Structures are given as C-alpha cells and as structure tokens.
Amino acid sequence: MAPSPLGPGDVRSKLTFFLSPPNGEPAYQYFRDPPPGKLKKNSIDDTRDVVIHDARGLEDTLSIEVNGFEFLKHISAKTEFLDERAVKTHYYAEMEEFLKEHTGAKRVYIFNHIIRRNYEGAGGGVPGPVNRVHVDQTFEDGFEVVRRHLPDEAEELLQGHFRIVNVWRPIGAPVHHDPLTVADYRTLSLEDLVPVHMLGTDVASPYLFNIRYNENIKWYYLREQTPSEVALFKCFESDMSHKGARMCPHGSFHDASSPPEAPKRQSIEIRALIFD
C-alpha cells in the first residue's frame, strides 16, 4: 500500500518499540549501568517507520482526557533551570498553580522532575532524550506513587480520584532536534502495553509500560515547540472505568528536516499527582 501523503508539518521518522525477551523471561531494564554480567535490558528494540503528525493548528481539538495529551500556552517566570533548588521551590509552585487552574484540581503535588540537555558539554550525568516509546507508570504502579510520596495520607487519598500528569517544556529555544512525540489514546490497544521492571532506581520495584508496535497508533508532536508552550500528557488514571484516556505513550524522535545548526534540545518535565 502506498504511504499516505504528509500534511504540512508532518514528518516520517523512526520510533523505537518493544519486542519481548527472546528467552521468555519477564522484561526488565536497568535505570543506570547494570551490574557486571547483566544486560542493560533483556528486551529487543523494534525500530519502525511511522508518520508523526503536526498538532500545530489543532491545539483546540486535543484534550488530555480524550486524547491523553494537549498543548497549551504558558510563559514561565523561569528560563534557565540551572539551579535545582530554585526549580523545586519556584517552578514547582508555578506549575502547581497552573495545573490547579487548568484542571480544577483541589490539590496538586509535584513529586519529581527531569531536565534533559542534548548537547556536547552537557555532562555525563545529564540525561538526553529517550527514543523508546513508553508510559511512566503501569496501572498498578500509579497507586504506588501515592504511597511512596505521600505515605501518611495515602490510604485516604487513594479513596478518591487522581491522575498523574507530566508537563513538558522546552528550555531556551524552540525544539528542532529530538522533539517530544505523544500517542492518541483512542488509537491504542491495551494489548500493546507491556510492563517492564525498572531496576537500579532509588524506588522499590517500579514498573513502566513499553509499547509494542501497532500501525493503528497515531502519533503527534508540536512543530518547533517553544519555551512558552507546554505539553501536558497523562501517565495514569485512577478510575479504571474511565471512558476517556487512561495514559499517553510518549518518547522522542529524530526529525531529519531540522536545520543542523539549530540549537540542540533542552527540556524540563515535571511529574504531578492531581487530586480532584
């Protein structure tokens, strides 16, 4: 079948999906370097060509509760994100208020963040973009996030409705290299989700979902997303009967049309518990 024509801003690229470990054992992946004699991960990368659709101009039609993601305008008072203490003090507070206002939540608790800088000289301890598509929590691990971070209140909080939402923002310049891509939940089959045990983290036995390739999954990005535009995407939904989006697979991809001289990607992503 001939490939469908691309719309303005759409790109063809490769995404990395999941194939099960060939020996049949449960899938694992080490967060950091594995112990001597152990593989970093026991699954196989399945790299596929996909079309990634430009969401620019479609922002008003996308919803975190329907599609699993949305793109919003938001100008932050912070621009550099070099001071970790300032990030946790000022940016966290700014994002808590933003999420409360946007979602109508009674309470927002930001439990961590990650800054990615994909350029020479960023330092070996600074992570770059992740190209394997994934979801940060499994259906079970989402509840454990509350128990880990709010143990004294967990049993009461778990009686109510909550979500885990990530807020992703470029730093310093529009994104040309390694943009974020997100999947429309409506095109996803839950059978394509595979739990992977994350080892070597600071957290006891966390799991995430990797994604098997499915040609029906529709992928989006926001072309040349700027630091005044944020991507919100859902990683967990506590209501198992929820009729809309329960999560959003995401990752990064190489855009061959990006000008080589454009700045390398920098981004900050906060992860928040949202209690209604």
Q: What value does the Rg take, in angstroms? A: 18 Å
Low-confidence stretches: none
Strand order of the largest sheet: 1-3-11-8-13
> DSSP strand (E) fraction?
25-35%
Looking at how many chains there are and whether they match, the oligomeric state comes to single chain
Specify the CATH class: Mainly Beta
Span of the ends, CA to CA: 46 Å
Supply the number of structural domains.
1
Structural class: mainly beta
Number of helices: 3
Annotated CATH architecture: Sandwich
| Element string (H = helix, E = strand) | EEEEHEEHHEEEEEEEE
Largest sheet report: 5 strands, mixed
The CATH topology corresponds to Jelly Rolls
Global mean pLDDT = 92
Protein name: Methyltransferase
Family: Belongs to the asaB hydroxylase/desaturase family.
GO molecular function: oxidoreductase activity
Word description of this protein:
The structure is a single chain. The chain is mainly beta. It has a single domain (13-275), classed as Jelly Rolls, CATH 2.60.120. Helices cover 12% and strands 33% of the residues. It is built from 3 helices and 14 strands. A 5-stranded mixed beta sheet has the order 1-3-11-8-13, with no helix packed on it. Strands 4-12-7-14-5 form a 5-stranded antiparallel beta sheet. Strand 9 and strand 10 (207-211) form a beta hairpin. The longest helix is centred in the middle third of the chain and has 20 residues, at 84-103. The mean pLDDT is 92. It comes from Botryobasidium botryosum (strain FD-172 SS1). GO terms for molecular function: oxidoreductase activity. Belongs to the asaB hydroxylase/desaturase family.
